[in-house]
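Problem 12. The chain below contains 200 residues. Write out its predicted structure in token notation.
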Amino acid sequence: RHFRKGLCLYGTRCAFSHSEPPPPPPPPPPPPSADLVEAQARYSVLRDRCKSLAASGAPREHLLAAAAALREQGEAVRALRPAKSASRFTERPRVRNKERAGALRRFLIDTYGLEALASGAGVLDVAGGQGALGFELLNLNRVPVTVVDPREMTARRLGRKWERGLYFRTEPLQAYNRPAGRRGLDGGGGGGGGGGCGGG
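Solution.
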């Protein structure tokens, strides 16, 4: 289910077929035709003429004639433009970010290492929201975390995910979890932040 987005952590061990080729990239837009370039240049000249007449206080009939010519030329430009192709965003797969805390935790581990993250007082998570990143660092990696956020922190939803084993069901990602395996829950699984994952 992930290979269509360009990533499958299971690789050759995946239970699903990876035989479907990725969609080809959209073709580049064609260059504008010579007629379109000429019409756009003519439109620019007429637009500058309208501005010049308005600035010089020309008679009303002159302004109306220039505006009519500009409008007619604008229609000619639009007629020469090629039809718009479908946007590349219309078929782009929707990437949900509900597991962004886990992606950020793995990035921090790859970039800085657990030893650096756990050194000193641990990690300070400013504007940590409901504490998802701190919850994972504390419970999956034993990294002390302090969450600073004006809102009251609750870990009930995170605790339910823990109880259902959702943090342990993707086998390739277990390399980012503590080697001791699944143990007790810290950080206030049923209520506000406690232990090393305190709310600020």
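Discussion. Residues 34-56 form the longest helix (23 residues). Students who got a different answer should revisit the alignment rule from Section 12.3.
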